[in-house]
Amino acid sequence: MSALIQQLNPEQHAAVTLPAENALILAGAGSGKTRVLTTRIAWLISTGQVSPAGILAVTFTNKAAKEMMARLSAQLPISVRGMWIGTFHGLCNRFLRAHWREAGLPQTFQILDVQDQLANIKRLLKALNVDEQRHPPKQVQWFINGAKEQGLRPGDVEARDQQSRQLVEIYLAYEAQCTRDGVADFAELLLRSYEILRDNPAIRAHYRQRFRHILVDEFQDTNRLQYQWLKLLAGPEDAQGACVFAVGDDDQSIYAFRGAHAGNMDDYQREFHVRHLIKLERNYRSHGHILDSANTLIANNARRLGKNLRTEAGAGEPVRVFEAPSDYAEAQWLIDEVRQLLREGLPHSEIAVLYRANALSRVIEGALFNAGLPYRVYGGLRFFERAEVKHALAYLRLLDNPQDDTAFLRVVNFPARGIGARTLEQLQDAARLRATPLSEAVDALGGRGAASLQAFLDLVAQMRFQTAAMSLPDLVRHVLEASGLNAHYREEREGQERLENLEELVNAAAAFVTQEGFGLNATAQQRQALGTASDAADSPAAIEAIDPATGETLSPLTAFLTHAALEAGDNQAQNGQDAIQMMTVHAAKGLEFDAVFITGLEEGLFPHENALSEADGVEEERRLMYVAITRARKRLYLSLAQTRMLHGQTRYNLRSRFFDELPPQALKWLSAKQPGFSQVLASSFDRDEQRGWNAPSKAVSGGFDPSTFTPPPPKTSHGLRVGQGVFHNKFGEGVVLSLEGSGDEARAQVRFNRHGTKWLALNIAKLTPVN
Ligand code: ATP
Ligand code: MG
C-alpha cells in the first residue's frame, strides 16, 4: 500500500490522504483522477478508517467497476466481491433487488433495455389508438425518460398544451403497463431507488449509517436525479452523514443530451460545503503532440472552469492525419496502419478505433473482417441485443415470469406457429378489457387462434417444468431446443452465425454461474451467509440472490436475465482474446490505448449536424473530441472521407472544423490537403504512396493547385480510375474504390452493387467501364 502512495505526485498524494470531509478533484484527462479515487479507497481501508462494506463507489461503466475491483483486490488482502462498486444503474438495481417490496416490484422484476422500452411504447400507442405521426414512439420514449431523469412522475409534469397533456397521459398509461408486466426501464431503476430513500426514513437511516465514504468518478456527467440520489444517500454532513469524494473534468462533460448537468459541480461545491478542491495538472497518459492537440482544441471553448495539462513524456510522434476519397479508402488505409502497428509489436487490444456514431463502424468492421484482423465492437448491436439472442432471452423471461407481455409478444409466433396478427390483436383487446397479462386472457378467445395460443402457453409451461431442476447452462440449452429456435436457425440459409450466438448464450450462462458463485451449493451457502451476517449486502451473490426479509433466494435465471439487461456492452471481451477495440467516443470515456484512430472527422458527422443548431452544441462536440484525443498514449491518427455512404445515401463531406483548431506543428498530413471531393474522385489514387508515415509525404494527386484547377482524370494502362463505374460478368455493376500496382500486378478494389467490395487482379478479371 505504501508503495502505491509513494508513486503519487504531491497533489495526488494530498488528494488520496485528505481527511474525511467532502472533496472535489477537478482535473483534465489522464491526470490520474481515477487512479487517485481507487488509491483513496485502498488507503481508507488499509488505514482502518472504513471497512470495505462502508464504501460506495460510482463508476461510469461496468467495465470500469470491474477494473477497480481487480485493482483493489490486487492491492489489499480483502474480498472485494461484496463492495458496492458499480454504475448508477447497477447500484440501483442492487438496491431494488433488496427492497423490491418497498419498490412495489415483483421480486423477479425484469429490466427493459432501450429497445424493449421502445417496443413497449409502440404497443401502448397502438392500444391507445394514438397516431404515431403525431407522437412518434422515439419522441415519447425521450419524453418519458427525460421526465424520469428529472425525478418527475406523470402527476408532477407540468402540461401546458394539448400535445404535452397527451404525452403525460401516455406516460401514465406506460407506467401502468410496466407495473402490470413487472418490468422496470433504466431510468426507473434510479427514480424508484431515489423515491424509496426519500420516502422511507428507516431505509435511509440504514444506508446513511452504512456508507461512510461515497466516491464518484466522472462526476461531470451525473444528471439531476443521480445528484439528488447521492445527496439523499450522503445525508447531512454534520450528523452521521457520509463523506463524498468526487472527481471530474468539466472539459469531458459529454452527456448533456442525456440530461447530464455539469452545473452539478458548482452545486456540489456549494450544497455539500466542499472544503477541499484539488487540481491535478500533470498528465501521465499522452505524449506531447497529443496533449498539445487536446489543449489547443479545448481552448476554443468559452465556458470552462480553466485547467491546464502538462506532460513530461516528451513530444513523441506527430499526430497523423489522412484524408481519404471514400469511406472504403479510409478503412483500407486504417488496415494498413494497423498492420504496421502490429508489426511494431503493439498488441491488438492497445489499438482503438473511435467514431462519433455507431453507423460509422460498419465499413471499418467489414475491412477488418476481410483482413482477418480480430476486433471487438463495443456498444452498437451488443451481444445481448442481437435478434436471436433476444428471442432466446424472451423464452427465458417467460419461464421466469409468465406475465411478461414484452417477452410474450416477441416469441409467441417465433418460430412461426400460425398465430396471426388478428389473433394477437384480439388477445390484446381481451387482456386490456380484463386488465390482465396476455397469458391470462387466452381463454377469452375462441377458435383456431385460441388453440394455437394455448399450445404456446403449454409449451412454455412444459419447458418450465422440465427445466426446474436443471443448472442454468443446461436450462438455457434445453430452452434453445425445446422452443424450436435451434431448429429454426438450422434451416435458415444464413443461420450459422445465429446458431453460434445462441451457443454463446449457453457459454455466457455457464460463465455467469461460475463468476457469480451460483455453484451447486450456492443456495445453502447463501442461506448460511444470511443467517450469520447481519447485513445481507456483504456479498454480491447475497444481495442479488437473497431477499433479506424472507431469506428467499432469487433464481440464477432471474439473476442472469438481470445481468443480460444491465450488461452495458462493455463486457463483451471473451476471456483473454486479443482484439482491436472499436467503440463510439462516448463509450471510450475513461479508457486509454497506445494507439487511437479517430475516424469520420467530417462536418456534420463530427461535429454532428444535430449539434450545430444548439447553443452549446458545438462546445459539447468539442469536448467529445477532447475526450477522443486524450484516449491516446503514443499514437494518434485522425481520418476523414470525402464521400461516405450513410443511411443509404452518399454524402459529400467537408473536413471537420476541428482540424483548424489543432496546432499545425503537431500534425503530419499523410494525404495531400484536398479541398473537395470532386478533384479526388477524378484523380488517380495510389495507395502505396499514401501509406503510412514511412512513405515520402509528397502530394498524391500531382502537383496542381487544387483550388484553381481540376485535372482531367488520369488514365492508367488498364484505363480505369477511382470513382469509375464498371461491369463484371459475375458480380455485375460496381464502382472502383482504389487501384494499386501496375502491369501484371495491377489490382482494383471495386464496390459491387450486389456483391460487396472485392479486390480483383486486373490481368484476370474483365472489368468493362460503364460510364
Ligand atoms: P480520464 O479523465 O481520461 O478519466 P484520469 O484523470 O482518470 O483520466 P487515470 O486514468 O487515472 O487518469 O490515469 C491516466 C494514466 O496515468 C493511467 O495509466 C495511470 O496509471 C497513470 N498515472 C496516473 N498517476 C500516475 C503517477 N503518479 N505515476 C505514474 N503513472 C500515473
Ligand atoms: Mg478517469
From TrEMBL:
Residues noted as binding ATP in the record, renumbered to the chain: A27, G28, A29, G30, S31, G32, K33, T34
GO cellular component: cytosol; DNA helicase complex
GO MF annotation list: 3'-5' DNA helicase activity; ATP binding; ATP hydrolysis activity; DNA binding
Lineage of the species this protein comes from: Bacteria, Pseudomonadati, Pseudomonadota, Betaproteobacteria, Burkholderiales
Keyword set includes Disulfide bond: no
UvrD-like helicase ATP-binding domain boundaries: 6-287
Superkingdom field: Bacteria
Keyword annotations: ATP-binding, DNA-binding, Helicase, Hydrolase, Isomerase, Nucleotide-binding
Domain named UvrD-like helicase C-terminal: residues: 288-590
GO terms, biological process: recombinational repair
Catalytic reaction list: Couples ATP hydrolysis with the unwinding of duplex DNA by translocating in the 3'-5' direction; ATP + H2O = ADP + phosphate + H(+)
Organism, as annotated: Thiomonas bhubaneswarensis
E.C. code: 5.6.2.4
Presence of keyword DNA damage: no
PROSITE patterns for this protein: UVRD_HELICASE_ATP_BIND, UVRD_HELICASE_CTER
Name of the protein this chain belongs to: DNA 3'-5' helicase
Family named by the database record: Belongs to the helicase family. UvrD subfamily.
Region Disordered, residue ranges: 695-717
Annotated coiled-coil segments of the chain: none
